[in-house]
């Protein structure tokens, strides 16, 4: 036997430390789809330090209580259940402290991450059953018996092989697709129901199966482990479906909005064309009168014709329908408010972005720029410029506008000027999320009274 003091330390620390470390991996891999909270290294050091300190205090205390109780096995099962729930709940503030996530996004990451860890743990328990039944090897360690020296290789195998296998499969089948869908789309209260499902089914079922070891037969335990694995996969499937459904709903809403804007612009174009046709008829009539010496053309009338033509010319044609839609909408808005919007755009460079991503990114960017210049008292500074071009294998976007000159950047991100910071400021986060989803970079800059937005997105 391995010395009892070593076994005591190893088993007590593993009760919390190993599950926490195993669970943090998939949780943080999912949360990494969101922007980090700066200073990230300091935050990570503080969070992990707190986790380690709690583990070093709670684990030995729990070990002492369990080993000196009248029913160590019963206390151990209760402690496993309670500690699992505590770890799951604690993962929510941990995720929110490291990444810019909402409560629902953190719940998604915590629930999915814990389910993946439980699937890996269940796979390890299934391997222990096989080794014990067919080879007579007792892998792992327990509170009361410690760990046999002969079982060390088997213990290492059943601990790390399931982690490598399950985590690799989970990354390819769940984590990577979930990150691609974008965690910004899981603002769904159905996540609470999924979390309850994770707690009641996955965790409780796992503890129940462990309590049957030594009581039920091999076939029964193997069957239960198989059902547990299926339940874990089903929970992950449900969570991904919630994410995909929400993403499709937002995609549909964006498409409907784009279609509605396109229809509005079509009606506006028809109205402008009709107005221009009327003006042309009147111009022809006035020209005929001027030529015959009857009168001169009214300057005010010519100014009204110029305004009609200017509105008609504000319709953008960049080669990207979504970009045309948003630029036309913002051009008309700028004209009404006396803002100059200059655009040089190659819409074909944005082939990597979906229509909803184009609409969301440029809608947020131009709304922020227009809001900034709208506050300026000097009419000459009320201008916004936008450039979209392709440079090699990159789509390069540059947006520039004047602003009041007050510092608006915090940790590289613009601070919202709205009083309610809880409901505002998500536009720029959405922009960054869209760019980083395509492995691009987004930077904000300010110098004197000029604010800039620069994005570089790889073109497939």
UniProtKB/TrEMBL annotation:
Where in this chain does the record put each Sensor histidine kinase NatK-like C-terminal domain? 355-458
Which CDD domains does the entry mention?
Answer: HATPase_AgrC-ComD-like
The membrane-spanning stretches of this chain are: 6-32, 44-66, 78-99, 151-174, 190-209, 215-238
Q: Name one Pfam family in it.
A: HATPase_c_5
Molecular-function GO terms, alphabetical: ATP binding
Q: Which UniProt keywords apply?
A: ATP-binding, Membrane, Nucleotide-binding, Transmembrane, Transmembrane helix
Record's superkingdom? Answer: Bacteria
What is the name of this protein?
Answer: ATP-binding protein
């Amino acid at each position: 036997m391995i010395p009892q003091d070593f076994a005591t330390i190893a088993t007590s620390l593993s009760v919390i430390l190993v599950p926490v470390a195993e669970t943090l991996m998939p949780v943080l891999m999912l949360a990494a789809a969101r922007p980090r909270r700066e200073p990230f290294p300091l935050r990570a050091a503080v969070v992990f330090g707190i986790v380690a300190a709690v583990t070093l205090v709670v684990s030995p205390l729990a070990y002492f209580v369990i080993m000196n109780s009248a029913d160590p096995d019963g206390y151990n099962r209760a402690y496993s259940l309670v500690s699992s729930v505590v770890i799951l709940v604690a993962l929510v503030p941990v995720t929110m402290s490291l990444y810019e996530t909402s409560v629902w996004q953190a719940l998604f990451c915590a629930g999915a991450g814990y389910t993946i860890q439980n699937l890996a743990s269940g796979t390890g328990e299934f391997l222990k059953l096989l080794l014990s039944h067919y080879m007579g090897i007792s892998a792992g360690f327990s509170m009361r018996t410690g760990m046999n020296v002969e079982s060390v290789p088997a213990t290492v195998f059943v601990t790390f092989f399931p982690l490598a296998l399950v985590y690799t499969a989970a990354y390819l089948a769940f984590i990577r697709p979930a990150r691609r869908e974008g965690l910004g789309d899981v603002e769904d209260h159905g996540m609470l129901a999924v979390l309850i499902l994770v707690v009641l089914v996955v965790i409780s079922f796992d503890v129940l199966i462990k309590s049957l070891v030594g009581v039920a037969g091999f076939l029964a335990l193997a069957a239960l482990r198989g059902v547990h694995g299926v339940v874990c996969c089903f929970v992950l499937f449900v969570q991904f479906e919630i994410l995909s459904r929400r993403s499709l709903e937002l995609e549909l809403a964006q498409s409907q909005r784009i279609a509605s804007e396109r229809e509005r612009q079509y009606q506006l174009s028809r109205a402008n064309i009709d107005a221009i046709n009327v003006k042309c008829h009147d111009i022809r009539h006035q020209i005929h009168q001027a030529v015959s010496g009857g009168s001169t053309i009214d300057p005010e009338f010519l100014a009204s014709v110029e305004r009609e033509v200017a509105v008609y010319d504000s319709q953008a044609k960049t080669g990207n329908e979504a970009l045309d839609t948003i630029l036309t909408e913002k051009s008309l808005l700028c004209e009404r408010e006396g803002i100059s919007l200059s655009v040089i755009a190659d819409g074909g460079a944005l082939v990597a972005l979906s229509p909803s991503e184009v609409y969301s990114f440029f809608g947020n960017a131009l709304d922020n720029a227009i809001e900034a210049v709208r506050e300026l008292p000097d009419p000459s500074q009320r201008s916004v410029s936008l450039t979209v071009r392709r440079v090699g294998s990159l789509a390069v976007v540059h947006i520039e506008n004047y602003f009041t000159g007050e510092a608006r950047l915090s940790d590289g991100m613009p601070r919202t000027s709205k009083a309610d910071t809880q409901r505002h400021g998500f536009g720029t986060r959405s922009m960054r999320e869209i760019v980083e989803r395509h492995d691009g970079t987004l930077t904000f800059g300010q110098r004197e009274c000029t604010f800039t937005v620069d994005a570089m997105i790889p073109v497939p």
